[in-house]
Amino acid sequence: MTLKYYQDNAQTFFDGTVNVDMSSLYETFTRHLVPGARVLDAGCGSGRDAKAFKEMGYQVEAFDASSAMVELAREHTGLPVQLMTFADVEWKEEFDGIWCCASLLHVPAVELPGVMRRLADALKPGGVWYVSFKHGDGEREVDGRRFTDMDEMGLRALLQYIPGIDVVEMWMSRDRRPQKDEAWINGILRKALSRILKN
Fold it and tell me: For residues 62 and 81, is the Cβ–Cβ distance under 8 A?
């Protein structure tokens, strides 16, 4: 359902998001990264953020589940954006940073712990992870897209299922797109440098 929306509306979505100024969010994320760090843009949409990170000198991998969005993102970024879903993520400790801007919010709540564990596994120890959700509580469908909304309590509860991931900061923001005035919950997460293995 959500995938069909992006297939059918890829160009409209691209046009509406590609030029949004996200610089303050980039700064919050990249201050935790070393120069040349490896970054994964998971659910990259238009490729706007992947392109920005590439231009900052990071090594960027990006993927999206919509083939139409992937084509547009490849063209926009010049990167070999992959066609895949969160369920296809199999990297192990490969990325210094993972960027999930308005992408995890389409995952059904029941699937979120598993998806986030896969992403956590892809992050190097000490790596940083940005996530954002529309602010709220529960699941809903709007114009052919499904959303899992989160508030701070919900996000913290979800992270109980993801071992070794800690909250660095969490904050509220307003939508940066014109004609949109939605509240978002943002989180910067970090993977623990080492885990104490218990026998």
Answer: yes
Place of tokens 């070999």: 80
Q: What percentage of the chain exceeds 90 in pLDDT?
A: 83
Residues 95 and 38 sit within 8 Å (Cβ to Cβ): yes
Q: What is the pTM assigned to this prediction? A: 0.93
Residue bearing tokens 């994320």: 29
Reduce the secondary structure of the chain to three states and give it as a string: CHHHHHHHCHHHHHHHHCCCCCHHHHHHHHCCCCCCCEEEEECCCCCHHHHHHHHCCCEEEEEECCHHHHHHHHHHHCCCCEECCHHHCCCCCCEEEEEECCCHHHCCHHHHHHHHHHHHHHEEEEEEEEEEEEECCEEEEECCEEEEEECHHHHHHHHCCCCCEEEEEEEEEECCCCCCCCEEEEEEEEECCCCCCCC
Do residues 107 and 136 touch, judged by C-beta distance below 8 A?
no
Select the more confidently predicted residue: 198 or 126: 126
| pLDDT-derived band at 1, boundaries 50, 70, 90 | confident
Q: For 59, how many CA atoms within 13 A lie in the half-sphere containing its CB?
A: 7
Joined tokens for residue 197: 């293995």
The predicted-structure confidence for 138-148, as pLDDT tens digits, reads as follows: 999 998 899 99
Share of the chain above pLDDT 70, in %: 95
Distance CA 14, CA 175 (A): 16
Tokens standing for residue 78: 């010049």
